[in-house]
Amino acid sequence: MFNADGAKGIVIMGIGPGSLSTAATQAAEDLHGKGVVTVASLRPFFGAVVPSPEPGNIISSGFLHDEQSRIQLQLALASGFEFTKIRRIFEGEIRKAVFN
């Protein structure tokens, strides 16, 4: 569906406290298949974007809004971090608090 054009990561901004649309989710899955790290940043009125119980190919932004997520993702990629470590940076503490 989408061409990565050399991108190493992307932040998809959703709206409200919901989840990504079906099209955005499919695009994120397609990009993940091309090696692009995808972070979903939604805009809840307060609180965090809680990751799903089972980790998938889309990383949740946690307490960070889209601009903050973009900067954190850029820093993680520039530091050479792989997908698993990037997921831990974004979701680690909130995943531990909610699901453990």
UniProtKB/TrEMBL annotation:
GO MF, one annotated term: asparaginase activity
Transmembrane segment boundaries: none
Assigned EC number: 3.5.1.1
Coiled-coil ranges from the UniProt annotation: none
Pfam family, one: Asparaginase_C
Domain of life: Eukaryota
Asparaginase/glutaminase C-terminal domain: residues covered: 4-90
InterPro entries in alphabetical order: Asp/glu_Ase-like_sf, Asparaginase/glutaminase-like, Asparaginase_C, L-asparaginase_C
GO annotation (BP), single: aspartate family amino acid metabolic process
UniProt xrefs under PROSITE patterns: ASN_GLN_ASE_3 (PS51732)
Name by which UniProt lists this protein: asparaginase
Source organism (scientific name): Penicillium nordicum
